[in-house]
Write a structure and sequence with these properties.
The complex is a heterodimer of chains A (264) and B (93). Chain A is α/β, with parallel strands linked by helices. Chain A has helices spanning 16-29, 46-49, 60-65, 70-73, 99-112, 126-133, 146-161, 176-181, 187-194, 206-214, 225-237, 253-263, and strands at residues 3-8, 34-38, 75-76, 83-86, 115-119, 137-142, 168-174, 197-203. Helices cover 43% and strands 16% of the residues of chain A. In chain A, helix 1 (16-29) crosses helix 11 and helix 5 (99-112) packs parallel to helix 6 (126-133). The mean pLDDT of chain A is 93. In chain B, a hairpin with a 2-residue loop joins strand 2 and strand 3. Classes of the chains: A alpha/beta (264), B alpha+beta (93). At the A-B interface, helix 7 and helix 9 of A face helix 2 of B.
């Protein structure tokens, strides 16, 4: 029996979908059987981040309503054969799925898969309630900004009220230089305020923009720093002890040269 | 970063309290006190009950008229309790 993990944040634009895509992919790279579920009905994006947008025939709403069999709605990844996506519906109404339907869907999926990773929409309304309905664990994504941390706090409260008592935090888009000069909250500052367990830290990096442009998760790139961060996070979710990555670490001369030639 | 603050940093005159991340932390702390309490009416109720029990050991208070609330000004958040006293208990022994 697999585990259902929801990736959530409250605030939009902090990197939920990028996190879902990369953590899901990295878990699959560890040999696990993974399905990612996009619950952002009407604003689906997980498909484009993964580069699978051209393969969609059926979606989440079709699957829960029985317009197709669940298996027909699952899209197999191009690169990894143990990685699947259940895309959100793009044209249907947000309220077209109920929490009961979501719970049923999750319990079916976890019979098949080792991890069910759910990408939650922004906000705390219907879509959020659906996304967390079938989840046993939660990953809260935030960035070192006042608005994102405030929303993360609210989400942690709502998760706890819903019985998901130990959400774990990912701090995304850390800019080491700004933390050093005191112009950005650091990891300790944020943990001080939110008082939750830390699952991982991800540096702000151009590699994310480039990988999203291409529709290739950055975890496939051995030279990507956020890629390493997300692979570490996947290993922790899988139960391994992995030390936090060193954000100070400069890229080696060799890898910088390689990156330079690549961009030519 | 402005030129003066850069100079300040260069000469080590930078104080923790003037850093923008410190401002972010302080502002978050205040705003979260309110957010968290808005979410939990039950906690406020428990506090009220405990206050009545504790103060009741020393004086007789008007439980109906007791008011507990959070108030906020520029310096921070304060717990404000208005507790009408009916009678003070005599010291025993």
């Amino acid at each position: 029996m697999g585990k259902v993990i929801v990736v959530t944040s409250g605030k939009g634009g902090v990197g939920k979908t990028t996190t879902t895509a990369n953590v899901g992919t990295a878990l699959a790279m560890l040999g696990k059987k993974i399905v990612m579920v996009d619950t952002d009905i009407g604003l689906r994006n997980l498909d484009v981040v993964l580069g699978l947008e051209n393969r969609i025939v059926y979606d989440l709403v079709d699957a829960v309503r029985g317009n197709c069999r669940l298996k027909q709605a699952l899209i197999k990844d191009k690169r990894l054969e143990n990685l699947y996506l259940l895309p959100a519906a793009q044209t249907k109404d947000k309220t077209s799925v109920t929490t009961d339907q979501m719970m049923e869907l999750c319990s079916k999926l976890k019979e098949e898969f080792d991890f069910v990773v759910i990408d939650c929409p922004a906000g705390i309304e219907h879509g959020f309630k659906n996304a967390i309905a079938g989840a046993e664990e939660a990953v809260v994504v935030t960035t070192p900004e006042v608005s994102a941390v405030r929303d993360a706090d609210r989400i942690i409260g709502l998760l706890e009220a819903a019985g998901i008592t130990e959400p774990r935090l990912i701090i995304n888009r850390i800019r080491t230089n700004m933390v050093k000069t005191g112009d950005m909250m650091g990891v300790d500052d944020i943990l001080d305020i939110l008082a939750v367990d830390l699952l991982g830290i991800v540096p702000d990096d151009d590699a994310i923009v480039i990988s999203t442009n291409k529709g290739e998760p950055t975890v496939f790139d051995d030279n990507s720093r956020p890629g390493l961060a997300f692979r570490n996070i996947a290993r922790r979710l899988n139960g391994d002890e992995v030390p936090l990555m060193n954000l100070e670490e400069k890229r080696s001369f060799f890898s910088r040269m390689k990156a330079m030639f690549k961009s030519e | 970063m402005g030129f003066t603050s850069m100079l300040g940093r260069f000469f080590g005159r930078d104080e923790e309290s003037s850093l923008s991340k410190t401002m972010a932390k302080e502002r978050l702390r205040l705003v979260l006190v309110h957010d968290r309490l808005d979410m939990s009416e039950t906690m406020m109720e428990e506090l009220r009950t405990d206050l009545i029990a504790t103060i009741g050991k020393y004086m007789e208070i008007d439980q109906e008229a007791l008011e507990v609330s959070l108030s906020r000004d520029d310096d921070g958040v304060a717990l404000v309790a208005n507790i009408p006293v009916k009678n003070v208990k005599r010291q025993v022994g």
